[in-house]
Amino acid sequence: MSDLQKKNAGEAAAQYVEAGMVVGLGTGSTAAWFVKALAARNLPDLRCVPTSERTADLARELGLTLSTLEDTPKIDLTVDGADEIGPGLALIKGGGAALLREKLVWEASARCICIADAAKVVPALGTFPLPIEVVAFGHKTTANRIADVLSDHDIASPARVREAERGLIRTDGGNLIYDAACKLIADPARLAADLKSLTGVVEHGLFLDLTDLAVIGTDDGFDTINP
Ligand code: 5RP
User: Fold this and answer.
1) Whose CA is nearest to atom 4 of ligand 1?
2) pLDDT along the chain (227 residues), means of 10
3) Residue 148 pLDDT
4) pLDDT at residue number 224
């Protein structure tokens, strides 16, 4: 993981933003570089829709004008990080527990750019544990159903609830996150559909067919990958 590469990716992606746009702001350390670079450009008439309270706080501090998905349901461009970038720009996201708001914003966007350091690009998805957002009510029952789905996909280990010293991690929406150590996701589309069909699962971190461009930071600049 290289902070310089994340910075280079974030700064490069800020150049894709034009005055007057509605911009989706991602969450995470790479997205934070983008938010800083965007604020530094001082473009007129931007409205920014943040994907987490953390990003909203940063954007507000930097003087960006914030909006919501309710007030600006059509987003021109979203720029966000990823935990893994696989073939066809299929992504795992949600390491920062913001996957639900992120997916809502991505799906409302005309164009989505994924930004990352080079280590995020992988030949197949699954090394990074797949985040799954689950409602707190009955979450252990939901976890058992998730385990059955994972087992159907030849994934032996059950998903583990995400916790910190102070207790279970809650998302901005008040839900819990389970992380599934898949090792290899052989069929991301089928796994995505099977997880989404479970009552109690709010969203999962597979972002498929949503990325229009990946901007990958290098030590001295950036590369781009098209789907
Ligand atoms: C947050 C995310 C982040 O984009 C992802 O975890 C990457 O984070 P970072 O840029 O800090 O490596 O999906 O929910």
Assistant:
1) 81
2) 94 98 98 98 98 98 98 98 98 98 98 98 98 98 98 94 96 98 97 98 98 98 96
3) 97
4) 98
Nearest CA to ligand 1 atom 6: 95
Torsion of CA 5, 31, 108, 185, to 10 degrees: 60
Give the number of other Cβ atoms within 10 Å of residue 16's Cβ. 17
Bridge partners, 113 (sequence order): 79, 213
Quote the pLDDT of residue 157: 87
Among all residues, which ones are annotated catalytic? 102
Q: Measured in angstroms, how far is the CA atom of residue 146 from the centroid of ligand 1? A: 23
